[in-house]
Amino acid sequence: MRIGNTEIRPAGGGLGCLLMILVSIVASIVLTVLINLVL
């Protein structure tokens, strides 16, 4: 994946990339739930 002139290689190849995507989805869900609880 390229952003401008910077090459980004996910750690662990394809599996690491999938894992990073899953982690970010879970993190956003958890953050949304926490924000809803606080508000």
Overall geometric form:
elongated
**What is the alpha-carbon Rg in Å?**
14 Å
Unreliable runs, pLDDT <50, ≥5 residues? none
Instruction: Tell me, rounded to a whole number, the average pLDDT.
Output: 82
How many helical stretches? 1
Q: Give me the count of strands.
A: 2
Largest sheet: 2 strands, antiparallel
DSSP strand (E) fraction?
Answer: 5-15%
Sequence of strands across the biggest β-sheet? 1-2
Level of helix content? 55-70%
Between the first and last Cα atoms, what is the distance in angstroms? 37 Å
Structural class: mainly alpha
| Helix and strand pattern | EEH
How would you describe this structure to a colleague?
- Keywords: Membrane, Transmembrane, Transmembrane helix.
- The chain crosses the membrane at residues 12-38.
- The chain is mostly helical.
- It has one helix at 13-38, and strands at 2-3, 6-7.
- β1 and β2 form a beta hairpin.
Layout of secondary structure:
Blueprint (H helix, E strand, L loop, with lengths): L1 E2 L2 E2 L5 H26 L1
Antiparallel strand pairs: 1-2
What can be said about this structure in brief?
This protein is mainly α and 39 residues long. 67% of the residues lie in helices and 10% in strands. The chain has one helix and two strands.
Features of this protein?
elongated, membrane, transmembrane helix, transmembrane
